[in-house]
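Running this now, will post back.
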Amino acid sequence: METTETNDALLPPLAPVLSPLSEEEKRARQRLHERRAYHRKLHRLQVLRNQVNQLEAEYQSLLDAKQLEEACAFVSELPEFGDGSTNEKAGVSDEYVEILRVKELLHKHNEAMRKALAEYDRCEKRMQRLLDKEADEDMPSPSSQLMPSTSKRFSIVVPSLRMPITWKQCNEIGQRTFAEVQRFVESPDFITTGASVFGWRDKRQYEGEHIKFLLTKTMLSITATDFSQRAWDVLSSPSVLPSLYSASITVQFFLIQHVDEDNVILLRVYSTPDGTRQVKSLFLVSKFEIATGYAIIYRSLDPSLILPYEVPPGVQEQWTEYNSWIIYERTGDQQQHCLVSFGGKILKSLAIGSDALELLFIAVRSENLMLGTHLRLGS
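Update: finished.
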């Protein structure tokens, strides 16, 4: 792996700014900054990996001593052999130590392969997002765009924001939302059916005209870190999100702003089959670390943040809130499992019938998409 100095040497130097830069020059300069930062992070990662290797070598030495101690204790409890019992016990002790060593090596090999695959996936998606971002910057950015809908008659207007949303704003919204989530999760005032459907258990709390809901399930043999990363790749992707909904529901998602790797602004549009009625939601999707794992929140944003646009003739638009969240918490003796909590707030009138069932189906489809479980649901 190349060092930071080598990578920086391959990049053109950043010349001093002598006059105001054009938008294209600013973007080129920003891309160069991002590449330099990326190479520095790679170098830092390699340094940390070297430290990990050193610590693992020390750990292995201690582990060998511990395994030998266990083997001696195991052999001492064996019944007496016939002639040559000392040699036979020594042979059993050696075999036991070897079995423990092979077990540990297989465990490390499996863990290394899992981490390598996860790192590869993250790098691939990160580079793809950078390429997509550069492609978007090279395209003209009108105040609004007409996107084809699933209807042959009408199109969907995808608006632009008046001002870009900053990381600081995303962080404030995320922390405020998570504080609300914690109050709900820790509240003793809730009702539940007590049932387990596909492993998911429910919890509800009434709040005026709304109902706060919570579905929980423990996912075995996957860490909170891995699951949250897989979930983010799905829950922040406008092209993948529609697959979580039933085929009978006409829904589309559009990217409004890519704030950073952990924050995006999306637009969700429900429409009737003919496209004459469209229900829109503007919301933030944010991923951040919490004390027990990770959280991904969907938080509605005020439609007044977007630039005015002209609604196509014959189309009726309605704006509605969209608030949901998913928490991925570490669980298990070695934190090898993940407790998933999927919740949100919906109107009380929608909590009966097919709408409530659709929430469960979304949870199950997301599990299927992220983990490849055997469960299959129809449309």
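The CA atoms of residues 8 and 36 lie 6 Å apart. More later if anyone needs it.
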